[in-house]
Fold this sequence. Notes:
Elements: E1 3-6, H1 10-21, E2 26-30, H2 33-42, E3 44-48, E4 51-55, E5 60-61, E6 72-77, H3 84-91, E7 95-103, H4 110-117, E8 122-128, E9 131-135, E10 138-141, E11 149-154, H5 161-170, E12 175-178, H6 182-203, H7 207-211, H8 214-233, H9 254-266, H10 275-281, H11 292-302, H12 307-321, H13 331-338
Parallel strand pairs: 1-2, 1-6, 2-5, 3-10, 6-7, 7-8, 11-12
Antiparallel strand pairs: 3-4, 8-11, 9-10
Amino acid sequence: MRVAFCGAGAVGASLSADMINAGVDVTVIDPWAPHVDAIRESGLTVNMPTGTEHTPFHPLHLYDVPTLRGTFDIVFTGVKSYDTRWVAELMKPLMGPDSVFVGTQNGMTIDEVSEIVGPERTVGCVVGIAANMPSPGLINREVTREGTWLAVGSLEGPVTDRVRQVHELLSHGAQVEITEDIRSAKWMKLLANIPEMLPSGILGAPLVEAAGNPVIRLAMDQASIEAYRLAKAIGVTFMPSLGIAADEMPDSEQYALDLLDAVLARFSKPTTRVAVLQDWDKGRRAELDAFCGYVVKKGKEIGMPTPVNEAILHLALQIESGELAPSWDNQELLVAAGQAGKQ
């Protein structure tokens, strides 16, 4: 089986290393040249809670892709949600009729992938992992492999041989489940991400610190509840996720709040900074379209107002434009966003 992983950041590189160390033939490709060069020179260093691991391999630059021949059976990507389309187009010529494309990403990128490679070659992945990349060639994973949780499933639903192979590959680095409703499964993760990603990023604070503030937690909860109501309106199936069992699921908006609590308990340390804030720390564009931006978009599609998520998204866009900076100075603005639509 021939495997490619295009987009080897904190998630992609560490999962690739897990596969490589298990003897899998993985071609790793990444757009960040210093990261590729650092791994070529010194290997990849992954700091796990149980110790430091070192994996030597030879990743490729993007400009090396035209030198590749043949097809890959499974193509993974770990790029930011807004880069999904061009990566799918880049790798499409290297896929065969029975190949699949797997996004180990935040957001609902299954739709973009499906438009490019086809629904029959699209496999979604729900990612429950805490990792960061402070410098090229260095990954910090804050949760053990036993505590890392993923779910995979084909866009069309059936559990195919390829889905089973994806499950096997990812199981080298995490606890992995197979679902026959990947869209709903990814919505569960989105409900967990909505209150954490943009709000704590806007404050420039670790997630635990932000969520520990009662007035901020209230604003987070309002965004969660709004997203839950939207999910219910468009027919999403609510299912167990992030370690919450079926018999622990309330049949109410409380489940959205419980999902954030699961993230806080299982995937967050006092110093954990969400992906949005990590991007802003590095001067990069964040995945606003994958979180509140997606909720606002879907709400407009069905004519359902989402004022809280829209107000939070507006603050995040002001940070991206340079009008604001991530800081606790934005607390009052965030609290007001949580009350949007109630005036």
